[in-house]
Design brief:
It is a single chain. The protein is mainly α and 414 residues long. It has a single domain (13-181, 194-413), classed as MFS general substrate transporter like domains (Growth Hormone, Chain: A). The protein is built from 18 helices and no strands. The protein is globular, with a radius of gyration of 20 Å. The two termini are 19 Å apart.
Length: 414
């Protein structure tokens, strides 16, 4: 099936995803910048940003019941309205407790919207087209999130209008969804796996998911604060985030091909080691703008591939008697927990030293690199296929993963 025939019937979904991702990337980065300019302490910035990821975790547990009870389109409108309300209230009032609550509601709503969109994509995806749909989803999300970073360069006098722009972007997504003719899918209940059980089944994938969430959560929520501490330049923050995200998009395919050839264990170790080495270089060269951008691109090349590698590792290890979809959802939950703890820990650490962020990254990545090599190697004949995954995804994404179709894995490995 051609890409054109796949995209056209669900183009409204991709437009909605694109507008949401622009607003997501823009606001998530801007919150730290805005609070830093208000001279809010790093610890408080970390707590406020952590609330967004706490909302994401709660959404993966509770939002499905809401969506199932009132339907996809009504749920989308309701959660989009909540996001718009939180964005607008950010621009009107500033209070630390209020903003923490607003970020929690925003995170809950955003991830509920992703669940709705992903379940629609899954409804339209066949065994033949799932891989292409997920690849397009990944590209759209990366590019849209990168575009969102450009809005950070708005003139200083119009900074608060970023919240209004974010609201408009969310409303654009509602227009596309309201006019869609795609049939509403039925959400199946999520089975819950315990962390000890998942760790016993896929230990390397579980640890990699948590550390990946920590890195990405820190990247979006606290790294802009770090750059402002180093340079006091919002323009540099915009450039850094843009080039890092583009690096993350570019690296998905080559890292995937290498991991299919040499195995996930080895690639997780190599990617983690490069991330650790890059983090160490930040401590030395972060004062130079050119070096900072080069290191940002290098960091993007590696850290954004860790979670897809973790999911691929789980697919390698799990046998047909276990539900890989539910395991993948638990890995995504673990990723969310890592994202939640990241701004909390980094926010406190930045109060003592600007280099704490990358010292933390260095220690975690080096530990993961060593830990990966201690794990059992998977035989070549048992390897699954690497699949690209968006920067951020909801709990329905595992349903879209084409690796659950045995024919897809066999055809891709030939």
């Amino acid at each position: 099936m051609s890409v054109k025939k796949i995209i056209f019937p669900i183009s409204s979904l991709f437009f909605a995803i694109g507008f949401l991702a622009i607003g997501y990337g823009m606001i998530l980065t801007f919150i730290g910048i805005y609070l830093k300019e208000l001279e809010v302490s790093n610890s408080i910035i970390g707590i406020i940003n952590a609330c967004f990821f706490l909302g994401a975790v709660l959404s993966s547990i509770f939002s499905q019941k809401i969506i199932s009870s009132v339907g996809h389109i009504r749920s989308f409108a309701a959660f989009a309205a909540l996001m718009v309300i939180t964005f607008l209230l950010h621009a009107v009032f500033f209070n630390e407790i209020l903003w923490a609550v607003l970020r929690l509601i925003s995170g809950f709503s955003f991830y509920a919207l992703l669940i709705i969109l992903e379940s629609w994509l899954n409804e339209k995806g066949s065994e033949e087209s799932r891989g292409k749909i997920l690849a397009i989803y990944t590209i759209v999300f990366y590019l849209a999130t990168a575009i969102g970073q450009l809005f950070l360069n708005i003139d200083e006098h119009f900074k608060q209008f970023i919240f209004t722009i974010g609201s408009a972007l969310v409303l654009f997504s509602v227009i596309f969804i309201s006019l869609t003719k795609i049939k509403e899918p039925v959400l199946t209940p999520f089975d819950k796996f315990s962390f000890p059980k998942i760790f016993s089944i896929v230990p390397l994938a579980t640890v990699t998911s948590f550390i990946s969430g920590f890195l990405i959560g820190g990247f979006f929520s606290m790294l802009p604060v770090y750059i402002l501490m180093q340079s006091d330049s919002v323009e540099l923050v915009s450039k850094f985030m843009l080039i890092s995200i583009i690096g993350g998009l570019i690296s998905q395919w080559p890292v995937g091909m290498l991991s299919d050839k040499f195995g996930r264990r080895k690639l997780i170790s190599i990617v983690s080691f490069i991330s650790a080495f890059t983090s160490l270089l930040f401590v030395v060269y972060a004062n130079e703008e050119l070096y900072l951008l080069i290191l940002g691109f290098s960091l993007g090349l590696t850290v954004f591939t860790l979670y897809p590698l973790a999911v691929a590792r789980a697919n390698d290890v799990v046998d047909e008697n276990k539900d890989i979809v539910e395991i993948s959802r638990t890995l995504l939950f673990t990723y969310g927990i890592g994202s939640f703890f990241s701004p909390l820990i980094i926010g406190v650490g930045l109060s003592f030293s600007p280099n704490f962020l990358f010292v933390c990254f260095f220690v975690l990545c080096l530990a993961l690199s060593i830990y990966a090599l201690t794990q059992e190697r998977v035989k070549d004949k048992d390897l699954s296929v690497f699949v690209n995954i968006p920067i951020t995804s909801g709990a329905e994404l595992p349903e879209l993963d084409p690796r659950q179709d045995e024919e897809y894995s066999q055809s891709e490995l030939k």
